[in-house]
Amino acid sequence: MTPAEIGRPQHRQGHRVLARWLLSAEWRSHRGRALVAIATIALGVALGYAVQLINSAAFNEFSAAARSLSGESDLQVRGAQPSFDEAIYPRLANEPGVALASPVLALDVTVPDRTSALPVLGIDVFKASRIAPDLIGVPSPDRPFDTLATNTVFLSPAAQQWLKVKIGDDLALRSGTSIVHFRVAGGLVRTRPGQRLAVMDIAAAQWKFGRVGKLSRVDIQLERGVDRERFRHALQARLGSQWVISETRDAESRTDRLSRAYRINMNVLALVALFTGAFLVFSTQALSVVRRRAQFAMLRVLGLTRGQLLRQILMEGALLGLLGSIAGLCLGYALASGAHHFFGSDLGGGYFPGVQPQVGFEPLASVLFLALGLAVSVLGSLAPALEAARARPAAALKAGAEEGALARLATPWPAVLCLAAAAVLTQMPPWLDAPIGGYLAVALLLVGGIALMPRATALIFGAASRAFARRRRVGAARTLALARLANAPGHASIAMGGVLSSFALIVAMAIMVASFRVSVEDWLVHLLSADLYVRVAPNGDTGGLRPDEQSSVAAVPGVKAAAFGRTSHLTLDPARPDVALLARGIDAADPGATLQMTGAVLPLSAFQGNETPVWVSEAMVDLYGYRLSQRIQLPLGEHGHVFVVAGVWRDYVRQTGAIVMRRADYRRLTGDTGATDVAVTVQSGTSVERVAAGLRALPFGGALDLSQPGEIRARTLVIFDRSFAVTYLLEVVAIVIGLFGVAATFSAQTLARAREFGMLRHVGVTRSQILAILALEGGMLTASGIAMGFALGFTIGLILVFVVNPQSFRKHPVKAPCPARA
């Protein structure tokens, strides 16, 4: 072994000792600033990790609950409409390759005095016992035939707890405008925690809820050896477009698509704190590098290489990130566990009703957020580390070279490139149903805006210094403060990076949320043009007014006009959520009187023959490619029907799409004469309260839910505010982090300027004047940062309003789209 080889281990050991020495010395000297940086990274990681855990747990539990309803079926055959004729069942049961077919009637039943519907499944016990045994009710030993009785129902534990009933109690449910009573005969074999579910005999369900001869789906179990995909396509070809053949994974895809935009947006908002923390790490490391510039130069003279110095500084940043990330993971787990109590399983979004997920440790998510915390810290340390490694030792040893170390920060070209790239990314279409380009544009705008801070600071305070220099009476403190800011813009930009980013994000979010609210209120004013709104079974699908009951409503004294409507849904794609189908009294010559149209509408002369017009929401344009005057095939009627898109309207409620058609056309095609809601216009001189009292006095008045427009608007805005509750919290966190960063950075700069202040004291500057200088610098920097943050935030707000949210929630805004679900 050569002497050089013998010396290498000792050389490496010496570098390790030096690295530990430098690390411990920096920690002892500036422990407070390091703790602030660690806390910032921890908070950012904690928020992102908590949101991920909550949404992941809720989605997984909801998907598991949906799978439990399908049991061991290979395929499910549904109608494109909510229910279909049961005559298809024998045909499916006798299809070659089908081992078992199980009919199911699925209903969301209104429960009196409850704000949510109860999911009820009507099943064939003998078929379901082989294909979905978990759904079978457990009767008492002395009543084994309760599973076939017409007046019994079996409830999951969560449903029993929610309804406050026990085995043997009476349960009242609503069917149309009537109340039907059932005896709770027992529980179910097995359901998910929090899953509200009722199961009964399918014949009893059809009879009691007015669905005689109707089914919702048929679960199919195939014979062994049958190719599922080939069978599915062959059966779809034989049945036609009126039928939807799906798998269990399609249900998961529907749930994923429905909540994906909300989940991604919540995760991105949670990472705002982490993104802001990156600038705090940058300022911490930049100030550390500037302060130790002479020390690093001496080490370079003594033999430390550029690579070793670069690794040393990056290791310091990585250690801050590691400590912050580990603390953030622990804090995030605690936040996720506690958030269920305050915000529910989905942070107020309402996408996962009826589940009680348990937050658990997720290795992949933990590694991801640990890596994010480390990456943010290392990236924040990269620019200072590169500058320290490139510095020439002889120049760095000279006093007064600190600002020169930050000269590269004043180069405008990287900032200009970031801003240009952000402008290009705003034109990107959504990727994976998410506005990835918009989010990247926001990030690049922040980076570019902060990178322009040194140049902007030099221009602003240089001009201010020259302007004040021409005045005769200018205080010494103001002159010195302006001169410092004009001639040391690098330090100013480091101090203001955190406040600029946090304030810009807060302004952007405030603009977006305020724009949402204004748009929703304007939309509701246009939509709610009647004096009184009546709904039957507002939270279920088993309510409705018969034709004779509709006549009774219209004949109530004081009612000038009663516009009846029917709300249903269509399945156009098994992998997408259902589309709302609204049958309303629309005037084809003037649809804008009822709907908020977004552009031109087809006149009556454009329809040929017996063509049927429909008006689609903006989401249908994005999701299904519908365009004005396009002929589309919808699965309505026995063999489907061709419709004409007569216009596009704005809908802030149904992000999965909605189609409006004339009620007369709906009745003609479906034979459904029921109505689920009524818009009542009151006669002049008659009070709304009097008409409401007349409606309640009807024989079925107890089944009617009456609301005035003001009440609906108030409820909608409450839902809106609840949806954005977490957003408000994240805004507060962002500004707190920014202020902490400014305080820590400014105090560090003050300590680093001890020689400067000593010289000023030597030439006669008093202590009060030095304090005034610091106060003026801090005030002017904060004002400059707020002004630039407002301008940057306004630009980001435009991207959020016109790029991110239209791509997230499938709405094209006038003022802004709205993700609130009314």
Please explain how this structure is put together.
The protein has 822 residues and is an alpha+beta fold. The protein has four domains: 1-69 and 256-402, no CATH class; 75-246, no CATH class; 406-528 and 726-822, no CATH class; 532-707, no CATH class. 56% of the residues lie in helices and 15% in strands. Strands 1, 3, 4, 5, 6, 7, 8, 9, 11 and 12 form a ten-stranded mixed beta sheet that branches. The radius of gyration is 33 Å and the shape is elongated. Mean pLDDT is 79; it is low at 3-7 and 811-822.
What labels describe this entry?
21 strands, disordered N terminus, 822 residues, 15% strand, elongated, 4 domains, disordered C terminus, alpha+beta
Q: TL;DR of this structure?
A:
The protein has 822 residues and is an alpha+beta fold.
Strand content: 5-15%
Radius of gyration: 33 Å
Q: How far is the first residue's CA from the last residue's CA?
A: 79 Å
Helix content: 55-70%
Mean pLDDT: 79
Task: Characterize the main sheet.
Answer: 10 strands, mixed
Low confidence ranges: 3-7, 811-822
The 3D shape can be described as elongated
Number of helices: 26
Count of β-strands:
21
Please state the structural category: alpha+beta
Number of domains: 4
